[in-house]
Amino acid sequence: MKIIKITYIKTLVPNMSCGTGYSEPDKFHVICDTGFETDIWIDIWYRSTDDWKKEFYNRIYRIFSDDSVSNFEEAFIMYIDALIESKRYGITDKDKHEIISLNY
Asked: What number of H helices and E strands is found in the chain?
């Protein structure tokens, strides 16, 4: 199965501290070539760009636990594109190329 589209939906922004740490996870809509669609939360708020791919991997494989995603690298690029479109992290195309080339 291939992921064919990832779209940014929203960010959870708490209006006060809850005592467990402060974070702002992002919600995305994922569409697969099988027709399967789902929403996923990915939390990169306190993570460096070096850890973004690992966090994306962990969240994707929590949903698709049978390792059925055959285009993980392509899906990661779609995810970064969705982040760029969201304007949440100030990522540019130059940053994108650096981020996707990192290994974890």
From this structure: 3, 3
Beta-carbon contacts of residue 38 (< 8 Å; ≥ 6 apart): 29, 30, 63
63-73 pLDDT tens trace: 987 778 999 99
The residue range of the domain holding 59 is 3-101
DSSP-derived letter for residue 45 is T
Q: How many domains does the chain have?
A: 1
Structure tokens, 103: 């290994």
**DSSP letter, residue 51:** G
23, 46 Cβ separation under 8 angstroms: yes
- CA distance linking residue 45 with residue 26, whole number of Å: 9
Is the overall model pTM greater than 0.85, yes or no?
yes
CA 92/CA 1 separation, integer angstroms: 29
Residue count of the chain, please give it. 104
How many C-alpha atoms does 21 have within 13 Å on its Cβ side?
6
